[in-house]
Inverse folding.
C-alpha cells in the first residue's frame, strides 16, 4: 500500500453524507420564494407572498410569541440552575455527589415521551392548569442537563487558586465570584444559553403534551402540515427559523472566540 | 540577626485532620517580624497546608494561630494581614497587568490617581515598569510571578506567603528570581514565609528553615546549622548530599565526647555538638559527612594535619566546575558486605586533574566534619 491515502471512495461518501444532511434544508428557502403552491419542480417564479401571509397569520404570530417566551425563559432558568450545579460539582465535594449529578443528567437520555407523559400525569393530578408555564417547566427539565454539561467544562477548566487569590486580596466570596469567576466562565454561560434556547425552540413532544390550547411553533407547524395550502407558508417560516439559528450560532461562537482570545485560552465549553 | 524582633506568626499546638489523615501534628512555631522563613519538605509533608492555615484558607482541628499578636481563628483570609503568591500565580487572565495589581485596592477609599501611582510604584519595584497596559495572559512565567508579587505587596501586608513560587520557572530564571526575592524582602522589610521542596532554594534564601516530614517539624534552624548539624538522618538526607558510614560506639566520657569506630575511617572521638540531637530508635549508629568535607589527594601531595584514608575510585561524574567521585574506602567492606561507596566532590580549580575510574588514591578528612547519628 502506498503511504498516501487514496480518498476517492471516502470523498464521495462525505459529499453524499453532507448532501443528505443539508439538501432538504436548502430546499426550504427555494420553495419559500417559489410562486407555486405545490412543492414540486419546476419552480414557478419568485414571490414574497408566503412571507407576507406568514406575518399576517395571527395564530402563527401567537405561536411564535409563545415559543420565544418559552425558549427565553427556560434557557435562562436552565442556565442559572446549570451554573449552580456545575459550580457545586466542580468546586466542592459532598456526600452523594455522584448519584445526585447522575440523576440531574438523566433527562438527557430518558425517552422524552416518557418524561412528557409522566409530567402530564403529575400536573393534571396536582390540578395545575396547562399553559406555557408548564411547558417552560418541562423545558427547564430537558435543557438543564445540557447547560450543566457545557458549564461543567467551563468551570472545571478554571484554576481554583484564582478565586482564592481574589479572596486573599480582600474581596468577599461574592466579589471574588462576580469579578473573577463569572467573567471567565461567561463564554460557557453564553453557550449554555444558546444550546438551551435552541433545544427549547424546536422541542415538540413536551410542548404538545403540556401546552394545553396554546400553540408553539413546532406544534403549530405540525398542525398545519395537514393542509397542502399552508405548506408554502411553513416553508417560509422554516426559512426564517434556519436563518435565525445560523445567526444565533454564529453570534455565540463569535463571543466565545472573542472571550477566549481575551484570556488567551483555547476552548472552554464551546459549541463548534 | 532577627532574634530580638517581635513575633509575627505564632503557631501553638497546631493540628489539622482531613478525615483520617493527620496533615499537621503538634506544630509549635514562631516566625519573627522581618524574617525570611522557609517551610521545607518533600511533597505531602504538610508545608503547604501550614501555609494555607496561616493564610486562612484551611481551618485547624486544634491549637492556635496568632498573627501580630492577634488570634486568627475567626478571621477569614480576606481580613488577614497576609497576602499570598500562589504556585500557579493565579493571575486574573481577563484583566490587564495594572488591573491585576490594582485588584486588592478596589475596596480602598483612595482616589484613582493615588491608586494609579501605587500600581506604578509596585510595578517598578518588581521590574515591570511600563507593563501596566499589557494583557496578563500574554506574559511569560517570570513576568507573571512578578505581577503576582506586585499584586500582593501593594497591599502592604504584614506577612507575604509564597507557595512554591519558583517551581514553574526554568533553572536560570529561578536562580535570578531567588536573588531578586531576597533583595525585595530586604527592601520592603516584611515577613516572608516561603514553601518549597527545593532544599537549595531554602538554603539560599532563608534566615531560618523549618524542615517538615509527615506533618511534623523535624528541625528548625538557620541554613548553616541545618546543613552542618542536621538533627536526624532524615533531615541530613533531605538537605544536600550526606554520606553515611556504619559506626560502633565504643566509649563515652563524662563531657559527652563519644568514641566511635567508623567503618572505613577508623576510630574517632566526637564532641557533643557533632552528635545529632534526635535518636532514630534502634537503627545502627551512622556517621555522616558531606561530599565537600573530604579531599582527594594527588599522588604527590605531602602528608597534612588531617587524617588520611586509602580509597579506590568507583565512578567519576564530571560537572564542569565540579567533579563528583564515588569512592570505596579501604576497609569499609569489613563486616559490611554491601557497603555503599561514598561520594565526594572536588572543585575543578586550575592545575587539578580529574582522576580516572579505578585509580588507587588517598583522601584527607577531618573528624571535625563528621556527625554521629544514633
Amino acid at each position: 500500500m502506498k503511504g498516501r491515502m487514496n480518498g476517492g471512495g471516502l470523498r464521495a461518501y462525505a459529499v453524499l453524507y453532507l448532501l443528505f444532511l443539508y439538501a432538504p434544508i436548502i430546499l426550504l428557502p427555494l420553495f419559500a420564494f417559489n410562486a407555486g403552491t405545490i412543492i414540486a419542480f419546476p419552480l414557478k417564479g419568485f414571490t414574497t407572498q408566503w412571507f407576507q401571509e406568514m406575518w399576517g397569520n395571527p395564530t402563527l404570530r401567537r405561536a411564535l410569541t409563545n415559543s420565544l417566551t418559552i425558549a427565553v425563559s427556560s434557557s435562562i432558568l436552565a442556565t442559572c440552575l446549570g451554573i449552580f450545579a456545575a459550580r457545586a460539582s466542580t468546586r466542592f465535594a459532598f456526600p452523594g455527589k455522584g448519584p445526585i449529578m447522575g440523576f440531574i443528567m438523566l433527562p438527557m437520555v430518558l425517552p422524552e415521551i416518557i418524561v412528557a407523559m409522566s409530567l402530564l400525569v403529575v400536573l393534571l393530578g396536582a390540578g395545575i392548569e396547562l399553559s406555557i408555564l408548564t411547558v417552560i417547566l418541562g423545558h427547564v427539565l430537558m435543557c438543564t442537563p445540557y447547560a450543566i454539561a457545557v458549564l461543567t467544562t467551563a468551570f472545571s477548566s478554571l484554576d481554583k487558586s484564582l478565586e482564592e487569590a481574589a479572596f486573599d486580596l480582600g474581596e468577599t466570596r461574592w466579589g471574588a465570584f462576580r469579578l473573577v469567576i463569572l467573567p471567565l466562565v461567561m463564554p460557557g454561560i453564553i453557550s449554555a444559553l444558546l444550546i438551551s434556547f435552541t433545544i427549547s425552540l424546536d422541542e415538540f413532544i413536551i410542548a404538545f403534551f403540556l401546552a394545553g390550547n396554546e400553540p408553539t411553533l413546532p406544534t403549530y407547524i405540525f398542525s398545519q402540515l395537514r393542509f397542502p395550502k399552508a405548506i408554502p407558508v411553513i416553508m417560509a417560516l422554516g426559512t426564517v427559523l434556519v436563518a435565525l439559528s445560523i445567526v444565533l450560532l454564529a453570534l455565540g461562537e463569535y463571543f466565545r472566540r472573542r472571550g477566549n482570545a481575551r484570556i488567551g485560552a483555547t476552548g472552554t465549553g464551546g459549541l463548534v | 540577626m532577627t532574634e530580638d524582633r517581635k513575633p509575627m506568626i505564632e503557631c501553638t499546638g497546631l493540628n489539622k485532620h482531613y478525615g483520617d489523615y493527620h496533615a499537621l501534628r503538634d506544630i509549635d512555631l514562631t516566625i519573627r517580624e522581618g524574617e525570611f522563613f522557609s517551610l521545607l519538605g518533600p511533597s505531602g509533608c504538610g508545608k503547604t497546608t501550614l501555609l494555607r492555615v496561616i493564610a486562612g484558607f484551611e481551618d485547624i482541628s486544634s491549637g492556635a494561630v496568632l498573627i501580630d499578636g492577634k488570634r486568627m481563628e475567626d478571621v477569614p483570609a480576606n481580613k488577614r494581614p497576609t497576602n499570598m503568591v500562589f504556585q500557579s500565580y493565579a493571575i486574573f487572565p481577563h484583566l490587564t497587568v495594572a488591573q491585576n495589581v490594582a485588584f486588592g485596592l478596589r475596596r480602598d477609599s483612595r482616589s484613582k490617581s493615588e491608586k494609579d501611582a501605587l500600581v506604578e510604584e509596585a510595578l517598578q519595584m518588581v521590574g515591570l515598569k511600563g507593563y501596566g497596559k499589557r494583557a496578563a495572559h500574554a506574559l511569560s512565567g517570570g513576568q507573571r510571578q512578578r505581577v503576582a508579587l506586585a499584586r500582593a505587596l501593594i497591599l502592604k501586608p504584614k506577612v507575604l506567603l509564597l507557595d512554591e513560587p519558583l517551581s514553574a520557572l526554568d533553572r536560570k530564571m529561578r536562580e535570578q528570581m531567588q536573588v531578586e526575592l531576597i533583595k525585595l524582602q530586604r527592601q520592603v522589610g516584611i515577613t516572608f514565609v516561603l514553601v518549597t521542596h527545593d532544599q537549595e532554594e531554602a538554603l539560599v534564601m532563608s534566615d531560618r528553615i523549618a524542615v517538615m516530614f509527615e506533618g511534623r517539624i523535624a528541625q528548625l534552624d538557620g541554613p548553616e546549622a541545618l546543613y552542618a548539624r542536621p538533627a536526624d538522618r532524615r533531615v541530613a538526607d533531605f538537605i544536600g548530599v550526606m554520606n553515611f558510614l556504619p559506626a560502633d560506639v565504643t566509649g563515652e566520657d563524662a563531657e559527652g565526647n563519644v568514641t566511635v569506630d567508623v567503618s572505613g575511617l577508623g576510630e574517632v572521638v566526637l564532641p557533643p555538638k557533632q552528635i545529632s540531637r534526635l535518636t532514630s530508635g534502634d537503627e545502627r549508629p551512622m556517621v555522616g559527612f558531606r561530599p565537600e568535607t573530604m579531599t582527594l589527594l594527588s599522588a604527590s601531595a605531602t602528608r597534612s594535619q588531617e587524617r588520611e584514608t586509602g580509597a579506590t575510585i568507583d565512578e567519576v561524574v564530571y560537572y564542569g566546575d565540579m567533579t563528583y567521585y564515588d569512592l570505596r574506602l579501604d576497609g569499609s567492606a569489613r563486616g559490611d558486605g554491601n557497603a555503599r561507596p561514598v561520594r565526594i566532590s572536588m572543585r575543578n580549580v586550575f592545575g587539578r586533574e580529574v582522576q580516572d575510574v579505578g585509580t588507587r588514591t588517598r583522601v584527607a578528612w577531618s573528624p571535625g566534619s563528621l556527625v554521629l547519628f544514633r
Notes: The mean pLDDT of chain A is 85. The interface with chain B takes residues 159, 161-162, 164-172, 175, 179-180, 183-184, 262-265 of chain A (CB under 8 Å). The domain at 59-262 of chain A is CATH 1.10.3720.10 (MetI-like fold).
